[in-house]
Amino acid sequence: DEDEDDNDLQMEADDDMEEVMCDVLAREPVDVDFGGIKLLLNQLFRGTSLNLGAVADNIIEKAFCSTVIESGGNNGDSDNDGEEGKREEKEEKVKNEELANIFGVSSVIPLGSKEDAQKELNSFLKKKLSGKGDSAKAISTLLDKKNQSAAFCICERMVNLPIQLGVAMFDTLLSELDALEKEDKPRFLVMLFKGFQYSAFQNKKQQEGEKKRKKKKSKSKHPKEESYVHEEEVPSISYYGFEDQFFVNQAKHVHHFEIPKTDGQKQDSTQPDKMFRTIAVLTIPGAHSALNELKQLLE
């Protein structure tokens, strides 16, 4: 709805927004986290008919390897919640989503299950892959398998929090995946990332890169052999999460699809020209490789 779109704009809009420094706490999700989890899911699945409430419930009640990140001042589900007064207070908080103060959520949801939320996730992904190239067909075929070989991996955070938080979230998630029994461990992780594109910016960068390549070529002792070093290709899509590109680079299959801009984004000239979502399929070792590269860069 309109309010959720406004929240999405606030979370996604500013690529150079100032980082927010705060104390955070990682813990298992509980009922009072419903509103905060749903809000984070909305920024990832904006503009879809996916039942985000069902997905949030699934993360809280049934999904494994689930963690939420909250501000350090909120103690979540306290030891005294068994008391009647505490229970009533908890129920009241569930009704009021504005009380939720969740900065990040991570979870793994099996895609071969018959649970409604998981079936909806599978259906959503397939619709975005319909009739689209080799990678899309490969991902769609993977989703058709009923042996739970694929799971949807969510690792969503507010983008203006330090990158170290994203690293810690993925680190915890992969550690919990590694600890699973073999029969419970998915072979493939399906991830969804938020991307954007500044067309004018990309064109300018490509032109600058072409000038550099021509300059290197003209200085070469053997120009006819075209032995100059190519500049790194400018990616057509950038990502809101600094860590996202590392996981996309390690993916076995990648598929991008464009999503519409909100009314607020259309009216703001500083907004990207296009908004995307990227579906990426990784193995668990591939996800570990992406995380290790990220850690080495940040050391």
Summarize this, please?
The protein is an alpha+beta fold and 299 residues long. The protein has eleven helices and eight strands.
Question: What does this protein structure show overall?
Answer:
This protein is an alpha+beta fold and 299 residues long. The protein has eleven helices and eight strands. The protein has helices at residues 2-12, 34-44, 52-61, 84-95, 116-129, 133-144, 163-178, 199-219, 244-249, 263-267, 284-298, and strands at residues 24-27, 64-71, 102-110, 150-157, 188-197, 238-239, 253-259, 274-283. α5 (116-129) runs antiparallel to α6 and α7 packs antiparallel against α11.
Topology record:
Elements: H1 2-12, E1 24-27, H2 34-44, H3 52-61, E2 64-71, H4 84-95, E3 102-110, H5 116-129, H6 133-144, E4 150-157, H7 163-178, E5 188-197, H8 199-219, E6 238-239, H9 244-249, E7 253-259, H10 263-267, E8 274-283, H11 284-298
Parallel strand pairs: 4-5
Antiparallel strand pairs: 1-2, 2-3, 3-4, 5-6, 5-8, 7-8
Helix pairs in contact: 1-2, 2-3, 3-5, 5-6, 7-11
